[in-house]
Design a protein that fits this description.
Elements (H helix, E strand, L loop, with lengths): L15 H5 L21 E2 L2 E2 L11 H5 L5 H9 L12 H24 L6 H16 L5 H9 L2 H16 L4
Antiparallel strand pairs: 1-2
Helix pairs in contact: 3-4, 4-5, 4-6, 4-7, 5-7
The chain binds iron/sulfur cluster.
């Protein structure tokens, strides 16, 4: 079973994080930006201040990790198209990116859980959930909506919460 690639690849993306995500001026970002508004430092699909982000007051951009969701949305769901060429793609790309980010985050959580001292039944459940996430290897907009509104994200959340509760040190 092929594993999801959770490594961001900005060159195959369309700067989705730099346009879709909102941020507020403060320690992590230099100014306010609304979701769906292209960052003023964006040049095409590249960050014009990439080499000096932290020094320029954008440490939040350095820390953000889409977990490989951005390039999948652009390349696999929208066939390499960009909101730059068709502004009507912004809303569907936003919905797809949010769902894909959740799918990749859930995958990352379940992968990390392998390092914990799992009971046999927990390992079976971890593998079952991972398999369900990996089935969605050729995503569509409708498939991502179905994932996000379906039972799988809740099942992963409940599984991780159960592990935390069991492994929490007793006081
Ligand atoms: S500062 Fe650069 S990395 Fe951060 S949102 Fe703007 S364009 Fe993207």
């Amino acid at each position: 079973m092929a594993e999801l690639d959770l490594t961001p690849n900005c060159k195959d993306c369309a700067a989705l994080c730099c346009v879709l995500l909102p941020f507020d001026a403060g320690e992590a970002f230099g100014f306010d930006k609304a979701g769906g508004e292209p960052c003023r430092h964006l040049s095409g699909h590249a960050c014009a201040i990439h080499a000096g982000l932290a020094a320029a007051g954008f440490g939040g951009c350095v820390r953000y990790d889409c977990l490989g969701a951005g390039q999948r949305v652009v390349q696999e769901v929208f066939a390499g198209k960009s909101w730059r060429d068709d502004a009507s793609l912004l809303a569907p790309m936003d919905a797809a990116f949010r769902a894909m980010r959740r799918l990749h985050e859930d995958h990352a959580l379940l992968t990390s859980a392998a390092r914990l001292p799992l009971l046999a039944a927990e390992e079976v459940e971890r593998q079952r959930l991972l398999t369900l996430l990996n089935i969605r290897q050729t995503p569509t907009e409708a498939g991502l909506v179905a994932f996000e509104t379906g039972p799988l994200p809740r099942a992963v959340k409940a599984f991780i919460a159960g592990l935390k509760a069991r492994l929490r040190p007793h006081r």
